[in-house]
Backbone:
């Protein structure tokens, strides 16, 4: 079975991907600095080669990618407040990390890179329509700008050196083991305590919440079927207001919480888009699958254990 390397493989999304790939029979090496902890369960962790280091370490990347067929590059700084407070490190991790990933892939004959990009590259450009891969982009934050730079960098590597890659633009992924820097686990934590659910702004801003298992299935199928250099949205295609999300959380948890509307901190300004929801038609046409888990089902799956 193939050897693969997953950067950021002990984080929220990466740990779910690692678990899936181990169960599929792959030989998995995980590179993670563990600054946000280790989200791999014990059984899975015992089945992988976990290396605690940073994707910005070129020597480590070159060593770990030797003999690998694919690199899943999911290492990144995450969370609005973390990114807003650390714009230089955010971009450094993305740009230096990607250079190390591609240099290592070319030197070691890696067949393909699967890169975790973001729906944040759309910025304010998708307010009047669902976001397709062909609309004008408008990245505003250091995180989104760096992600878009890396998409372009991968395209250049393909055109100049023939390195195959898939960039996947994630839309508000949620699921088990996500920490409360993100909105859904924060709402669930507040609801469990019957505390006020804190919503920034009017609550009328919309997002497209995509369940983690749908995301991993999409990545898995894309890696099997796609060659060349491509970009795909991975979105549920369900536009939902943050207020409606808070009400759904209250309903599913039978909480006594009320919704508390707060002014957004100034540092969140560039992250506060009034409307964003994705279009996954390109994904469906390519692999015959797209995310379909409803928010109610997804919330119940999180609470099931």
Residues:
């Amino acid at each position: 079975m193939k050897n693969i390397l997953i950067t950021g493989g002990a984080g929220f999304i990466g740990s779910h991907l690692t678990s899936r790939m181990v169960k599929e029979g792959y030989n998995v090496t995980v590179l993670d600095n563990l600054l946000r902890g280790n989200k791999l369960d014990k059984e899975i962790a015992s089945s992988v080669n976990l290396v605690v280091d940073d994707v910005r370490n070129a020597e480590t990347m070159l060593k770990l990618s030797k003999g690998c067929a694919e690199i899943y590059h999911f290492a990144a700084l995450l969370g609005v407040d973390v990114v807003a407070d650390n714009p230089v490190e955010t971009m450094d991790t993305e740009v230096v990390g990607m250079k190390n990933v591609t240099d290592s892939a070319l030197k070691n004959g890696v067949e393909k890179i699967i890169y975790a990009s973001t729906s944040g590259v759309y910025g304010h450009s998708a307010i009047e329509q669902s976001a397709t891969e062909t609309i004008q982009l408008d990245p505003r934050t250091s995180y989104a700008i760096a992600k878009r730079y890396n998409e372009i960098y991968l395209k250049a590597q393909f055109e100049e050196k023939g390195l195959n890659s898939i960039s996947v633009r994630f839309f508000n992924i949620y699921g088990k083991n996500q920490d409360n820097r993100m909105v859904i686990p924060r709402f669930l934590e507040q609801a469990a305590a019957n505390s006020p659910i804190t919503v920034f702004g009017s609550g009328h801003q919309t997002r497209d919440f995509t369940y983690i298992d749908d995301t991993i299935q999409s990545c898995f199928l894309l890696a099997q079927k796609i060659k060349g250099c491509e970009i795909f949205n991975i979105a549920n295609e369900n536009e939902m207001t943050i207020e409606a999300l808070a009400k759904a959380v209250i309903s599913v948890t039978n909480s006594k919480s009320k919704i508390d509307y707060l002014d957004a901190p100034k540092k969140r300004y560039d992250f506060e888009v009034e409307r964003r929801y994705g279009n996954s038609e390109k994904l469906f046409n390519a692999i015959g699958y797209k995310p379909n888990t409803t928010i109610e089902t997804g919330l119940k799956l999180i609470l099931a254990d």
